[in-house]
Amino acid sequence: MTLRLVLLGPPGVGKGTQGRRLATEHGWPLISTGEMLREAVARRTPLGVEAQRLMDAGQLVGDDVMIGLVKERTGQSDAEAGFVLDGFPRTVPQADALDAMMGERGRTLDSAVSLTAPRDELVRRMSARRECPVCKRAYNLVSWPPKDGVHCDDHPTVELYQRADDAPETVVRRLEVYARDTAPLMEYYRRRGRLREVEGLGTMDAVYGSMIRALGL
Ligand code: AP5
Ligand code: MG
Questions:
Q1: Which ligand is nearest to the CA of 62?
Q2: Which of the following is catalytic: 4, 15, 38, 137?
Q3: 1 class by beta-carbon count within 10 Å (0-12 exposed, 13-18 middle, 19+ buried)
Q4: What pLDDT is stored for residue 79 in this prediction?
Q5: Mean pLDDT in each 10-residue stretch from start to end of the chain (217 residues)?
Q6: Atom 6 in ligand 1: which residue has the minimum CA distance?
Q7: What's the domain range around 185?
Q8: Is residue 45 part of a domain?
Q9: Does the model's pTM come out above 0.90?
Q10: How far apart are CA 145 and CA 130, in angstroms?
Q11: 14 Cα–ligand 2 center, Å
């Protein structure tokens, strides 16, 4: 089936975790703008150099750059039968641009899933997060540790790393930026009848089940 979906929610709520599983199980690409930017940072491209400064400060990268990236990525052939967008849109201009690019292609965005969890849980999750630099999977030293405590289960020679923007002071800033710039998107999609609210607290399986039910899958 075809589904074009946006995952909304604060930093650390589980967008990447849930989005990866949903996309893998249904054969859609997971399009994570945060991952695209971290890749650019790792490769030291001009975009990466500029983005790193903003990401490390917990600030957003400019709308025009992000809209250009997503327009290009969602236009690729693997996104024709649907996609899961994680981390975009993050501002009202990005949401307007997404609708416009879908419209130009004669398509529509089906749903925006909003995941929620209390602030102290978000902070706990981010402080214990460790990611695989190869497959980008997010582990958690408390709730989802890798088998040997250090390496990715699927890449046994690759050490997990902590994201620079998971430093405690950056987490505080990211939560503020989320409340100011991104939280208004819930109302944006609610008014358009496309918002599906899902409780992000609970086991990863429980959250996944709620999301599947909310989407009628
Ligand atoms: P981005 O990478 O999108 O970060 P984010 O929105 O802050 O979200 P996170 O990736 O931190 O959290 P998540 O919801 O994916 O949680 P996860 O699944 O990892 O963006 C990073 C930066 O890039 C931004 O700050 C900005 O600078 C820039 N950027 C990106 N997109 C942009 C845009 N469109 N416009 C402008 N700038 C942009 O889970 C978190 C942890 O919890 C993990 O350890 C996981 O194992 C664990 N966990 C998950 N689910 C559960 C559960 N149910 N129970 C217990 N633990 C759980
Ligand atoms: Mg993520």
A1: 1
A2: 15
A3: exposed
A4: 97
A5: 96 98 97 97 96 97 98 97 97 98 96 98 98 96 96 98 97 98 98 98 98 96
A6: 11
A7: 3-29+76-215
A8: no
A9: yes
A10: 9
A11: 7
Is 137 noted as a catalytic residue in this protein?
A: no
For residue 149, is it within any domain?
A: yes
* 47 inside domain: no
CATH number of domain containing 156: 3.40.50.300
**pLDDT score of 1:** 87
Please, is 103 exposed, middle or buried when counting C-beta atoms within 10 Å of its C-beta (0-12, 13-18, 19+)?
exposed
Residue in the structure block whose two tokens are 């999977």: 137
CA 103 to chain CA centroid, Å, is: 23
Domain count, the chain: 1
Q: Among 86, 119, 132, 144, say which to mutate for ligand 1: greatest number of ligand atoms within 8 Å of CB.
A: 144
In a domain, 64, yes or no: no
